[in-house]
Specification:
3 domains, alpha+beta, 26 strands, 12 helices, 5'-Nucleotdase_C, Purple Acid Phosphatase, chain A, domain 2, 5-stranded mixed beta sheet
Length: about 500
């Protein structure tokens, strides 16, 4: 009886203490008139939950399990922390293929389930969200405990919105508006019946709504596109920061890059823009301070901070809670990818050059694996010529049984095989475009050099034609030069030993 009474008193005391403490905290916030809001952002997770490489069969420092550790640390530092994502969640690993294509999403779809545990505030629709079809995407969205946003994807038939355009969160009386935007660079067959509106025009429309109609004090855009204008890639973050009045920060994705810049906005203050690389290898952080002036919350621009946590440079331990939550999905994926689908009597191996540091052997000479890919493409496209990029320089199919994982390691993103008709002249232009990858040789150069500004996946290996490359000559610098018909680097272009007509 005594014990019960003592616990009862303790409980009353605890409740009183909490109420007093909470009230004191409220008075303190009211006295200072300032609120500190941290916004954390991820992008291009592409199905990476665990700190595990399904292709290299190893653990490494990336994925939700790694991100979650830092998110928890920041929330300890500042409870007023929101977590948002900039898209490309549901495609990109064997895990997302298995649950998106083979199993179809259910109420516990892996990515949104884990994000729910991590308490995400909002996500964004990326171009790869459309890869498994609109029905699958809608099922994924239905499983989420947070809104997945896009203000510029509409139905082609009537212009109505397909997704929720924005969400608003109250943080200690501050209204935070979060607007989602999607790149226009989407595979046409994936978005049949839909239209993706211009991101800058859409941002202007909805930021004005958030500011004037919703009375938001802080406006963040989470955008699945990169920094600089590019029609092909659909990048518009910089123009939005420069031209759209009322934007306070932009989280970007799509380009799989690390971007940490500020851009001068149209009303004289800088807008922070962050892109946290890919696959959960980094985490973006914005810190905003708002002061209550005459009953209105105003951003203190001189206090705004931004940074990116790079987990390769500064590793953290994975969050055990996320590892445990993702275990059943991970183990089911491993069982699927271990399925044997064939055998081989020899090794098919890629690798890096011994002569040129950082350059794969496939970009210098024929390799068995790229030859194998091109042979299959020739067969199934019923083509005369095949070209394929070396997406994984470390891919290796060993002699013996072939598993789904072996095939996945060659080309991590499932894609489409196309056959198109081209002329000899068009083929030559294509080859001239491809070999821009090589830098022009200068007197005294001992070996081949490569243009670092051109991604390796934009260089293809060909089968069915032969040609010579003269690296002493410059590459075409733009589309006009390429279309001019001038002789650049490619000569002796032949198919089956016969010179091709340039018509």
């Amino acid at each position: 009886m005594f014990k019960f009474k003592r616990n009862q008193k303790s409980l009353v005391f605890t409740l009183v203490f909490l109420l007093v403490f909470s009230f004191a905290s409220f008075i303190f916030a009211a006295d200072t008139g300032e609120v500190h809001i941290t916004i954390l952002g991820t992008a291009d997770l592409h199905g990476h939950i665990m700190n595990y490489d399904y292709y290299g069969i190893r653990t490494y420092t990336q994925g939700f399990a790694i991100v979650s550790t830092m998110v928890k640390e920041v929330r300890e530092e500042n409870p007023n922390t929101l977590l948002i994502d900039a898209g490309d969640l549901i495609q990109g690993t064997p895990l997302t293929y298995y649950y998106g294509k083979m199993m179809k999403p259910d109420k516990d779809y892996p990515m949104t389930y884990i994000m729910g545990i991590m308490n995400y505030t909002a996500g964004t629709v990326g171009n790869h969200e459309f890869n498994y079809g609109l029905d699958t995407l809608q099922k994924v969205i239905d499983t989420a405990k947070f809104p997945i946003l896009s203000a510029n994807v509409v139905k082609e038939s009537d212009g109505s919105l397909v997704f929720t355009p924005y969400t608003i969160v109250d943080v200690e009386g501050v209204k935070v508006g979060i607007l989602g935007l999607t790149t226009q660079s989407c595979t046409a067959s994936d978005i049949r019946g839909l239209k993706i509106l211009h991101p800058v025009e859409t941002a202007e429309k909805y930021v004005k709504i958030l500011k004037e109609e919703e009375n938001c004090n802080l406006i963040i855009i989470t955008a699945h596109f990169g920094l600089d204008p590019d029609k092909r890639a659909g990048n518009y973050a910089r123009p939005i920061a420069q031209d759209v009045v009322g934007v306070d920060g932009i989280l970007t994705g799509h380009d799989h890059s690390t971007i940490d810049v500020e851009e001068m906005g149209p009303t004289g203050y800088t807008v922070p823009i962050l892109m946290p690389y890919k696959w959960g290898r980094a985490l973006a952080r914005f810190d905003f301070y708002l002061k209550n002036i005459d009953g209105k919350w105003v951003v203190e621009r001189d206090k705004t901070e931004q940074q990116i946590y790079d987990f390769k440079k500064d590793p953290v331990e994975p969050d055990e809670e996320i590892l445990m939550a993702g275990k059943k999905y991970h183990e089911a994926t491993l069982e699927y990818t271990g399925t044997i689908i064939g055998t081989t009597t020899a090794d098919f191996k890629e690798g890096y050059s011994d002569e040129i540091k950082g350059i794969s052997q496939g970009k210098l000479q024929d390799t068995p694996l790229i030859n194998l890919v091109n042979q299959f493409q020739l067969k199934y496209a019923k083509a005369d010529i095949s070209l394929a990029a070396e997406f994984a320089a470390t891919a290796n199919i060993k002699k013996g049984d072939i598993t789904i994982n072996d095939i996945s390691s060659i080309y991590i993103y499932e894609n489409y095989l196309f056959g198109i008709r081209i002329t000899g002249a068009e083929l030559k232009k294509l080859l001239e475009y491809e070999v821009r990858f090589y830098r022009q040789l200068k007197d005294g150069d001992a070996t081949v050099a490569f243009d670092d500004s051109i991604p390796g996946y934009n260089y293809d290996m060909f089968k069915g034609v032969s040609f010579d490359i003269d690296l002493s000559k410059p590459a075409p610098q733009n589309a006009d030069e390429l279309a001019s018909g001038k002789q650049f680097r490619i000569f002796n272009l032949k198919k089956m030993g016969n010179r091709l007509m340039m018509m």
